[in-house]
Each structure stands twice: as structure tokens, then as C-alpha cells.
Amino acid sequence: MLYLSVITIILPLVAATASAPAQAEASISEPLVFDVLHSYHVPSGYDTHQSIFASPRLIDVEPPTLTLKARPTSVYRPRSWESLEHARLRSLHHAQSEPVEWYETQVLGPNVEDRHTLAQLARMTANAYQLPGHKNWFELEPSWDINASFPFGWDNDEDGFRGFVFRSRDNNTIVLSIKGTTLQGPTSKKDKLNDNLLFSCCCARVDFSWVFSTVCDCYSWSALHWRCDDICLSEALIQDSLFYTTGVNLVRDLIYLYPSANIWLVGHSLGGSLASLLGSTFGLPAVAFEAPGERMAATRLHLPLPPSRGHSSLPPVPITHVYHNADPIPQGTCTGAASLCAQAGYALETRCHLGKSIVYDTVRKLKWHVDVQKHPIRQVILNVLDADGPWPDGEGGEERDVPKAKEEEDCVDCFKWEFGDYKNHLVT
Questions:
Q1: Could you name the domain of life of the organism this protein comes from (predicted)?
Q2: Is position 63 within any domain?
């Protein structure tokens, strides 16, 4: 199986390093300095950036010093991973709920109020798209040990879920960076399948013209209504969405190999949504850049989430979304048959996110027009996260170095669709 090879490959590397001391309670730490642990990367000569979803070729930048600020972060985790998975499958296959016992703990998570930390995590995210030495690679520091990184998951049989794993020099923090969508290359077909399953309202059925572009057969048309079968959708997502399942296995391996380390998840676009879904599953801090709304996907995956608390209607998951308002993809506005997303075969229709969102007002500050070409992670790094602040934050005229993270409590996805049991499934 795919995830077994992760342990086989990286266990010798772990054994060669001293284990981190267990942390009884999270506390403010010194800035964290990261080295590459291992990589999942592309064949030699393959350029992942010929895509509106990946990064365009821009000017080279000076290598930054990678120092990240951490802060205590409350997370909720299941008492047992096995009980969580059992509850998820019982909900899927039997339409029955099963209680999951959660406990609250504190870990060191990324300080998302620090602009430099966000910029460095974004650089790690961007580096999931190519090999070290590629012209679009961000050099994090001069002492990278390229011999410590190696290809994984890029052969013809296992193409799809890709990225990098970084670790701090003291072995206390692990960062899993997940690659997003590319239009051309060995992952493009599975990238599109995952995008259209996770982020479309119903099987990528944008309109009547998408008869041959759908990814499942769950729509049930009527003269006056757009109807979609819930059970069919869940089954399609579970059976075909290989990236989430692969990610679960990989994260379990990392938890096993680094039981005392803080594990963070980052990603861009599709990779960001996967980072969020995995962070929600395991109670791990995640930062997602320019990611489509994944809240509906969490429901369709039947992910058990900790109950909401206080006045919030959302579960307390340690997820932070970072995007700007000139990018239509995280806002769910790159929609309709005439949109660039639809013309490329992508039905990115959802807009509601888990956790909290940091939204940069590039329309007001940078005078950008809403354009899918503003989606690439390199654009975000060089023109948004590296730009001098302050940034507008809300309607009151307040400005901040980093906009305040806020919940999307009143967000609604796919309002024109009706969801229910329209195909008369027999639940067994």
C-alpha cells in the first residue's frame, strides 16, 4: 500500500536523529529553523507552472531566512483515531450517528498574526510544486541538504498526492506541505477529479452542456428544481477521492514517527483544502492559501468534527485560510459556463471554509481586479504577503499588518440546489 512505503522510506532518517523531548504544555518558543526532511517531486524537466492554478514564472528573489514564530494553540482531538474512522464509516454506510469523544489540548501552532511567518509558510507551500533547484523554487536558507530529499509518489502508478515534509532542526516541528492543482502533467487528471468532487455542487454539473464533463451521476433533474442525491455524492467522494485517503495515511505515519513533535499542515488551492480537511481530522494546525471552500466537502466525507462552542456555529478546528479578494477561487465566484474555471473543465463552486479566514483586500489596497490569474501562490507571496502593510481590515477603516482572522458564520454553499435522497437508495 502507498502509505506503508512512507514509513519504509523515512524511518531510517528518523532513527538517525534524536527524538524531541515530549512537551507537557505548549509555550512560546524560539523562532523555528527548518530543513528539508524529504520530498515528493516531479520528474526531471517537468514544469508544473504552465497553469492558471500553479505559479507563473516571475523574477528570482533573494533567499529568505526561514524563521517561524509559534504560539500556543488549543486543538480538539479524538480519544481514538479508530473510533473516529468507525463513526465516519457508520455515518456514511448506515446513515447513523455515533458519538466521538474529544479532548482539548494545547500545542505550538504557527503564529498567523505574524506576517513573516505567513510568508515563510507560503514559501514552503510554493515549494511543493517543484524540485529544489528549479527556477521557481524558494531557497529557504543556504544550508539546505539536497541529499536529504528524495522523490516519492511521482511514478505512473502512484501519481497524485504530492508535496514536501519539512522538519525543524531540533526535530520539534514537522510541516507537511501539499501540492495543489496543475493543468498539465501526470497529476492533472486526478487533480481535476478531486477538485470537481470536492468543490462542485453536484458532480461538476455546471449546466446542461456539461453532460460529458461530470464526475458522478448524482443529479436528478426536474422541470423547476436542481436536485442532487446526498447518498450518491458521499459514495462518489469516498470511493474516488484518493487524495484525502492518502493524506490520512501519511499523517498517521508522521504522528507515529514523530509522537512528540508539533505537526503543521500547509497547502495552496486544492492542497490547502486537503491540508484543512486533514487538520480537521487529526486536530492539527493547518494554514491554507487561496483554497476553495471545503466545508461542504467535510460534510460529504462524513468527517466527525468537535462540537461548536460558545456563540460560534462552527466547530473549533485549528484551521486558518489565507486569501485575497481579487482571487475568485476561494470566494466561489469563478463559476458559470462562461468562467475561465469552467472553460478549463473545473467546477469550483463552493465558498464556505472551515476555521477562520484572513482576507487581504487587494482590490482596495493594490487596485487589483478580480481575476483568476491572481490565484498562483507566487503572486500571493511576492505581491501580497511580502508587501509592506498595513492592510485594510473591515468596513471600519481599521488597518493591520495582517488582517484579523474571522469565522464565516453566515456562509451558504450551493443555494440553488436541493439535496436529498432522490435516487431511492437502500441504506444497508
A1: Eukaryota
A2: yes
- The confidence band for 398, taking pLDDT boundaries of 50, 70 and 90, is confident
Q: Is the peptide bond before 151 cis (omega within 30 degrees of 0)?
A: no
Residue type, 225: H
What is the tens place of the pLDDT at every residue in 284-314?
999 999 999 999 999 888 888 888 876 667 7
Evaluate whether residue 427 is within a structural domain.
no
Residue at 291 is within a domain: yes
> Across the chain, which distance is largest between two alpha carbons, in Å?
66
pTM of the predicted model, to two decimals?
0.84
pLDDT mean over 178-191: 88
Question: Which of 177, 200, 269, 273 is flagged as catalytic?
Answer: 269
| 52 domain residue, yes or no | no
Domain count, the chain: 1
Q: Are 357 and 408 in contact (CB under 8 A)?
A: yes
Please return the burial class of 428, using the count of CB atoms within 10 Å of its CB with bins 0-12, 13-18 and 19+: exposed
pLDDT of 408-420, one tens digit each? 878 998 888 888 8
Q: Is 269 a catalytic residue?
A: yes
Q: Checking DSSP bridges between strand 173-178 and strand 163-168, what pairing results, if any?
A: antiparallel
The whole-angstrom separation of Cα 375 and Cα 332 is: 12
Give CA–CA dist 203/330, Å, rounded.
19
